[in-house]
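As agreed, record passed on underneath.
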Amino acid sequence: MRRKASLILLAFAVFFATLSPMLRWYAFPRLAKVPANEYQDMVLEARNATLLDYGTMRARKVPKVTIVQTLKGNVEASERIERTTGRDVVVWDGLSYVEGPDGKMVSRIPERYIFDAHTQDPVHAPGESVDGDPVRREGIEFKWPFLTEKRDYEYFDAQTRTSAPIHYKGTQDFRGLEVYYFEQTVPWTKVKYPKTLPVEGITPEVLADTGTTRWYTTVRRFWVEPLTGAPVYGEEIHKEELRGGTLLGDRDKVTAFAGHVKMREDYIEHTVDLVKTNRTLILLMTSYLPWGFLALGILLLSLALYLEARNRRPGDPTPAQATTTEPVNA
């Protein structure tokens, strides 16, 4: 009976010891993915900012500029692309909507971002765009990969339509979470006008005819929770200028926008709570369960060996000895 029990325990020990690395290195990369139907919204604010008044073409100080960013998963588009690529794909239809202190629109820039649900690598497919212009992204945008590493990543900038390194700057504590801090500086670059402008009748084509060009620079900062790859906080020191042309008269340039853009407090709290929940799920698959299964396998192996050793205690009679009797003499 003991021998049978030890064999059963040995089988379970092998099973759990094998399951431990399989869960971490085989199951996790295939099960961890961004859901195709995810919806996110975020509100950022730039207080005491500088904003261009398109009526007078003069820059003025304003108490607040608000940026509302939304990302909506397009399930129908993702399923269509999956059929042609053979990959799990997420399609985010994004919108960056900027409004002034009076609540009126300053600009609105739509995006379509297509990426691999598991690795967050970009997937190039028809529809990939920024403000209606086709683009070909390289690197990440919005989200880092699961199990983010302490290294630089290529990050796509929607204003310039180009990618550049975003640099890992160190590990920090952010409201009880260990996060990786990343920073990217985009130098002054000539960029396109938004296709939707706040003044009726003024279009990018009209502005281009005046010879006045739009320039942009920013310092982009993210605090990223490494297990989930989700930014828990982000901010930008953002500047835009109009330069040259007949639109500005005798001026060489005018500030179109300048401000320190930060996440609103209520959205920070919501994001941190959500990331903490998702972080626990990632830990289950990458740490808690693999190490738990390995420890259980070792425990079961030890118990099986113990039972086998008891089954073979020295001094116990062998079957042959137990059946041998002394000869009887007449």
